[in-house]
Amino acid sequence: MPGRLPIAACLTLALALVVAAPSHAQQTPPAGPVVLRPARVFDGVASEPHPGWVVVVQGGAIVAAGPAAEVKVPEGARVVDLPDATLLPGLVDAHTHILLHAYDEASWEDQVLKEPLALRVARATNHLKLNLMSGFTTLRDLGTEGAGYADVGLKQAIEQGIIPGPRLVVATRAIVATRTYAPSGFAPELEIPQGAEEADGDSLRRVVRDQVGRGADVIKVYADNARGPTFSIEELKLIVETARSAGRPVSAHATTRGGMFRAATAGVSTIEHGEGGDAEVFRLMASRGVAFCPTLTVLEALARFRGDRPGVDPEPARLKQARAAFKLALDAGVTIVNGSDIGAFKHGEGARELELMVDFGMTPPAALKAATSVAAKVLGLDDKIGAIRPGLRADLVAVAGDPTKQIGAVRKLQLVMKDGVLYREP
Ligand SMILES: [Zn+2]
Hints:
The protein is α/β, with parallel strands linked by helices. It is built from 13 helices and 19 strands.
C-alpha cells in the first residue's frame, strides 16, 4: 500500500517516475500529414487489393484510406509516390527470439551458457533493426532463452526512441517443468542455468505472477519436449487461469500430439510448432479457438544447418511432418498466425515463413492476413495494428509488385513506417 511506504521509498518512487518520463525520442513522426500513393493497397482484411487507393498519415496514425478521387489530400501534405508498389499493414511475426542469433553461428547451448548478457543485448539491438527494416513492425518475442528480462528493457528502449525496432510483445523468461528443458545432459549433481524458468504445481501461480510483474505481456510455457508432454492438464490450466486473471494470454510450445492436446484442453491462446498434430487435435483447437503458429522456417533452417542431404532428400522428415500438419490445420479451419521462430536462423529473413505457408497450401492473401489482421487479433492488438483503416497506428510497408499474386514480393521492400515514422523509403 503506497500510504504505508517509508518516506525514502516514496522519494525513490517519485524519482523513478521522473526518470521514466518520456525522453526526447529520436523517432518522432513528422508534424505534417504524409500521403502515400501506391499502385494498390492490401488493407489486411479484404483478399483483393484496392487499386488506386491513397493513404493519409498524420501524428503516427492512419487518418484516411480510400480511392484517390474520394480522399481529400490535406494542405501542405508530403506526398510519397510508390508506383508499381503494394502498400500493406506492417507485418507481424508472432514467434521470435530477438536475444538469439542463428544456430549455425553459435549453438543454442553456447549462446545460453557462454555469451555475456551485454553481448546478447548488443546483438539484439541489431536484430531488432534488421527485422524492422525487413517489414516486420510487430514481434511477439517468445522467451529470452537465458537472457532474463532483457526483452523488457529492449522494448522500453524502442518505445523511448533510443533504438529503432518493431513494436514488441514480450514473454520474459518462459516457463518449463523442472528438469524438462535445456541445457541438459550434465552430471546430476551440477546446477546448470536453464534457458527458461522452472516451476511446477502450485509454484506456477507465483511464477506467472512474477513474470507478469516484471513485464511479461504474454506467458510462454513449454507444454512438452521431444519425449512428450511435460506439464499436466491441471498445471497448464493453473497457468492459463493465473495469466488470464492478470489479463495475459498464454502461448504453448508443443510439438507432440499429447502436448498439443493438453495445451488446447487447458485453454491456451496459441500453440507453437505443432508438427505432431493430427486431425483430431486440430479440430479441438478450432473448436476451442486456439490459434496455430506453425514456425515452418525454423524446421527448414535446422535441417539446412544439419546438412540434411540437399538434393537427395529435399524435404527432411520433420518438415514433411510439418507440411502434413499444416494441411490438417487448414482443413480443420484452425486460425493460423504467422510466426517463424526467427533467432534460430538469421534475423531479417522473416518473410520466408510467408513463402513456406503458401508453398504448404495457403493462398497468398491468407498468408498476408496471417501476418497482419489475423495476427493482430490473436495478439489482442487489433484496435491498434493489422489493417489499413482510419484510427489505427500508421504501421505500413510497401513492396514492389503484388504479394497477393506472388508472395515473394514481400521481400521487395520499398517503404517501412512504424507509428508514422519512416524508417525506409524509396
Ligand atoms: Zn521459439
